[in-house]
Queue: 3 jobs
Job 1
Amino acid sequence: MARRGPVAKTLKVTLVKSLIGLSPKQEATVKALGLRRIRQAVEHDDTATIRGMIRAVPFCLKVEER
């Protein structure tokens, strides 16, 4: 029987709040996640880097684990 590596989990990240009013650093973090418009969703691998970016702006994102 072949051994398989661990299955990479993904996170679906959706922008739910406008970028207006965010600090420039927070706005840059959201854009670095690949989000530009409200209700736009992207998928990222579940890594510590991505989790840290999400933790910086949790109030304007919706995150689903897949």
Job 2
Amino acid sequence: MIHAFIMLNVEAGSEENVLKKLKALDAVEEMYVSYGVYDIIVKVKAETIGDLTEAVTNKIRATDQVQSVLTLPMTSGRARNLTSTHK
């Protein structure tokens, strides 16, 4: 299983509309609205890199009001807890 975070820029004021459209996609696991450089962050899953490419290219990028996309595929390793106990 491949996971990726997709950072989206969307047309101003269209966040809720885009979220509704993305919610219908099977590959989408989680979605968040962000107030930073990107407007929406989406976590997706796919069986293969080809399936990931299909989801991003033909579904997410093709969604009305999506202006730009940055895809961050995740490695198979788990993230370590990087919280420091040192002050």
Job 3
Amino acid sequence: MYFRRGSGRVLWKLIGLTIVGAGGVVGYAWYDEDFRKAAEARVPYAKQVLGYIFEYLPAPKSPLPVP
């Protein structure tokens, strides 16, 4: 099978982008309860995956009150 030179770079970039995107979703869901509920309602298996990940994270600090 013929592969162009550099095709592995594209694969690694896609894998890295996927990891960064998933980490961003998890981080924001950890911080914002409304976002977490929306993600759990719209994304299949998100509730189970986020629940498993959040078992190992400390509870987020409450945001500063808006004056």
